[in-house]
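The passage that follows is intended for readers who have already worked through the single-chain material. We present the inputs for a multi-component assembly, then the predicted structure in tokenized form, and finally a short commentary. You are encouraged to pause after the input and sketch how you expect the pieces to fit together before reading on.
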Amino acid sequence: MKREKIHLAGVFLLSFYFIFFPCGSLAENQDVSLHLWGQISPFISGEAGKGAGAPDYKDAFDEGIGAGLEMSWRFSNRFSLLGGIGFERYDGKTYKDISFDDLKVIPLYLGGKFHFLPKDSRWTPYAKVDLGMAHLSCVDISYQSLKGGYWDSSWVFLFEVGGGLEYRFKKWGIGLEVLPRYLGKPDSVLGRPSDAKDSWTIPIRLGVSYHF
Amino acid sequence: MDLKPQKISEIIFRERRKTFLLCSVVLAFLLTFPIVARVMGDYRGTPNKIQVPCTCDWATDITFAVIADTHVDACTTGEKNDYTNENRGVVDNINQDCMNNYCLFVAHVGDMIYGIDKNDQEKHGIEQLIAFRQLWENDYPGQDGGSIGDHNYYSKGKRIKFPVFPTIGNHDIGACGDNWYQVVDYIGDRVTYSGGASGIIDHYKGDTYAWRVGQYYFIQLGLWAGSLQCGDFSATDRNKLIWLQNFLENHVGDSGLGVLIFQHFGWDPWTINDKSPVWWTDSQRLMEVNVLCRRDIDNTDPNAICNPYNILGIFSGHVHSPQDLSIKVRAGKDSNGNAVEFRNFSMRTSGDTRSATGFSIVHLDGQKVTIRSKNRALQPYDGREWSTYEAPIYIPPIDEWSEVKSGPSIGFETAGGGAAIADINGNGKPDLVLMNIDKPAGINNQFWYMIGWDMDHNGNVSNGWSGVKKGPFVGAYSAGGGAAIADIDGDGRPDLVLMAIDNPAGANEFWYVVGWNLDESGNPKGWSEVKKGPRGFSDEDAGGGAAIADINGNGKPDLLFMAIDNPSGANEFRYVVGYDLNASGDPTGWSSVKIGPKVGNETAGGGAAIADIDGNRKPDLLLMAVDKPSQANQFWYVIGWDLDGNSNVSSWSEVKHGPCVGWSTEGGGAAITNIDRGRPDLLFMAIDNPAGENHFWYTIGWNLDKDGNATGKSVGVWPPKSWRDQVIDQLRGN
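Having made your guess, compare it with the prediction:
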């Protein structure tokens, strides 16, 4: 299973390359942009284990912060294709005397935007859908002097859908996005007690774009 | 006076006439009893046995209704406080709400009928019981509707559509044998007498009984866990408490399955504080709690350690109003010093119009109990009349199949395998024999086997594995094998049959050996020569199996061999039976080759087992194939139902699927036995054959149902450990 997911991640990177490889020739129209974003996820919800008194994600982790890079190609007046990669960290908390290590997430996604206004608008509101994979780091737990694994590292399915608004001034733009996101469940190390469910977050991204 | 001596024949004739007359009178009385009884007075009639709902044993989603204090009263019909009419309304509501919520049954917590005083009860008891039957017996009139000829006289078309599980309340209890006792007798006829209705697990006297639906046990207790069913309602029947104690211990044990209790008296303030009369005393309540806490019945310390069963709720009636779902029954402390409490749900009356009447619909989903209660006094019915209570519950998880267990390693190349279970070392615990046909390069193959000693209730070998034991050589071209154990020579010691399918160019042939009289270490006293069975059942095989059972029912063991025919395209089960093995292991004759179902295109081993799976006292034949596509292998099996004396089955099941088992199987086996003290369990074995050493792997399908599906067993612990304790246990390596 894990091998399959690594293959899928490889396929994803190749797709990313082939979509944006031809973009160089289009750069003169400022249809291609590079977007650097910073993110805060005010919460992460879902069950992070099973059993009486098992924690939710929000019991085990603080809100997350992260950053990433996204490349976008506006191939028509209303639509863009995009791909991106990021890095996020959710600080571990202590729940019922059990301390969780940080959870690190590397999202890797392809997606599309629908722009509500034409290309030459200064304000660019849009709707966005991303599909991809996310690598979840392994998470260890500790209790007094005892330490052990809780989740194994894993690749999980990623889906996010939402919208954003960009303000353009010449080749630069700044934007805000809100993207409710679904992530698949991590691999359990302890069996039932650490058998988590899928998680939901609502990342809020603030970013700077350069159009070339 | 001239007395003539009587002839013997005259005396006999005269006596015969007397006997004939007497018999005629008795017969006439019996035939006309219903009419006579109707003329002379009321009789309650005879209901059908109640139908216990049938669900999968692992089901957690269960809905039922609870009613209390219906006080069906034939005497108030048409009067201002018409209890019977109120019952009609409740019946109507329950039918509608239960249809919408998929209720399986209705539980009644006592006071089925009404009585004003003893004299009135005597006078009208049976009439009221018939009124109750007309309203609350879903299949009324059953065998006999009683002395009221009009079957809708009291119900007026409002009859419950779901089976009602009744028990008695203080209004239903009278002196033993008087008219009131008819209520207990009615429950007896409906539920408990003559061995009980099908699905009633156990009962005590007439009014106390238990049944199971899904992962929940339901227990009707009458007034309370130690009450009498007639006579003095304040007295204690210690034997009934012992019955409950034994029932819980034997049927629930440590399974953690949910227990729901129904009784008339509860822990509501009115019932426990009323002094005229005292309904039940503190010491009686403590006795009941002691049983639910696995304590000595006579324990007098209410704070003693309580090791509770998974009591999900105690439903009670008696108080009529208000309904109270928040009553806590303090039961002591658990081993960690935490307070243990049971929930007592005090129900409102379903018939007494002097109070707000109603009923409740209870839904269990394995994680919470939801009780929706209807207060019929809150009219119009616009939704306000419903209230909802919710509380978490815990039911341990169920696994249909065990994990795939790793057995010992054995050899490097395999040409087939087999599995059998028997108590070889005679200590009362099943031992697991796993066989492998070792296939070295260039020389004859050889039977190897190992024994896993003393399987525990989880299917784990608790006393280690034997070393590899080597049997006879068996040709160079094996293509599957099988193993079976039985006392063939009748000397009290188990004999081990090992089979290999010889697979040369051309027609294949069953070859087998018998290891006579296995000793307590699993070594035979000697081996038979290699015996040859039927030939020509196929040219290419991909696995086989062996089983021994008395198929033709003459008391002698019959030997069944199975081969999986492996042509290009779909594979197929085929089998033969050698009848009536003699003390040398030879049959008197072989059946023709029987053709079974097809079973995939690529197979890597098989197995056969015989047992009465559907419980109809006819042997059923289970055939297994390890399906081997390009990736994960999987156990597939079929069941041939009801083997007849000619070894034909009446029908075949569809192909069923067990767990997956690695990518590189080369041989398998199957056995059926009781491992966990429930219904028959199904063991499948596969020989994993990667590069390098081979390994035995096996898995167990728990508690086969009548369709041959594994229904699972509880794999959780009770009382449940918290998430925190489970995590810490694992960090500590427990």
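Commentary: Chain A has a mean pLDDT of 88. The two ends of chain A are 40 Å apart (CA to CA). How closely did your sketch match?
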